[in-house]
Structure formats: structure tokens, C-alpha cells
Amino acid sequence: MQPFQYHVDMALCIDATGSMGPVLEQVKTNALRFYSDISAALTEKSKVIAGMRVRVVAFRDFYVDGDRALQSSEFFSLPEQAAQFERFVKELRADGGGDEPESALEALAVAIKSPWTREGQRQRHLIVLWTDASAHPLEKASTDMPSNYPSGMPGNLSELTDLWAGQEINFGAKRLIFYAPDAEPWSVIGATNGGWENAIWYPSRAGHGLDDLTYKEIINAIVNSVG
Q1: pLDDT 10s digits, 23-64
Q2: 127 has which bridge partners?
Q3: What CATH number should be reported for the domain holding residue 8?
């Protein structure tokens, strides 16, 4: 019996503010490991990646950081474009952001709206988000929109939830894995009852890095979602 083959797209939403230095450095260290680690783990489960693409959506604060508030890439095909992926991640610097909160929900909306693959018979569309801060409410833009604010953003968390539940991502294929503090909106999105479907939440603490255990948990969550 031939193993199942999956086309996997992953959007990495990374808080690039000053307090995220330890995590950002670990993400840089692990960037090129994603493909090999996920491929090896899937092979053990008799599953094969027919194609894998990764994009990065790094965010800070639209109300403080101007044009540096959002740095996003296109999808990189791995392993073919591993060098370009590595270069983009390594050029990110942990700075800015001002005080809490940050513009994580806008980054999440950008990730949800990614041009996800429709290739093959089986796909997985994954968003992995890291932050140690709460997030600006999307409603803030209605009264205090900076000139650099992206167009087409949801107006509130309910609209963002509808975007996640809509047709931007195939319902059966999508997963959100987020590493975030026990604060709003993360406690709402990750709630056991009433939270987002297909979302896995790992609580984080400010100033703490992405240790080996957490990295393995994230890899396992990704691999277990491919089923």
C-alpha cells in the first residue's frame, strides 16, 4: 500500500518585537529543520510530503513601528528554496513594539488570507504563531487607524473568527497552532468551549525562548494534524 501524500503549506506568524528576542533566535535556528523534521516524523507514520511551502509573517505594532510593523514573505518551496527562506528569517530583528499589546491579529488575518495550495488530493494548511503579548483589538483601527494600516482587515474578533471559519482555508485541511500568553484574545481563541475549531494553544511567557520540548510539541502537533 502506497503511503498517503500531502501538500503542506505553513504560515509562520512571528512576533518580532524586542521582548521576543529569545524566541526569534530559536525560530532562526530551527527554520531549516522544519522540513526535515516534519518529513522524518511523517515517514514514520507512513505519510509522505509531496510538496511543502512555508511563508513568514513577522509583526510588531502598527501604532508604533510604521513601515516595519509587518514584514511578510511569499511562500518558499522546501527544500528547493531553503536558502531564501533562511535568508528572510535571519534578516529579522527583535526590536520595536513599544508597550503591550501588539498587532498579532492583523498578522493572523494576513496568514489566513494566504494563497494556500490546492494541489493534490490531500492538503494541510497550517498557521503557527508565536507571541508573548496580548493583541490590539481590531476595533481600534476604526477610530485610530495609522496610515500604514493594511486594507481589508476584519473589523473585530468575531469577523476574524468568521474569516477562519470561512472558505479562505479548506476546513478539513486547516490547523492553527499558537504559542501565546494567557491573555485576550488568545484565551478566547484557544478556549476549550467556544474557541476556534482546529486550534491548539501553548501558553507562553515573556522573555522565554522556544525550548526543545516546545519545538517538539509543535512538530508533533503538525504531524498529528496530517491524518
Answers
A1: 778 777 776 687 788 888 888 877 778 899 999 999 999 999
A2: 11, 176
A3: 3.40.50.410
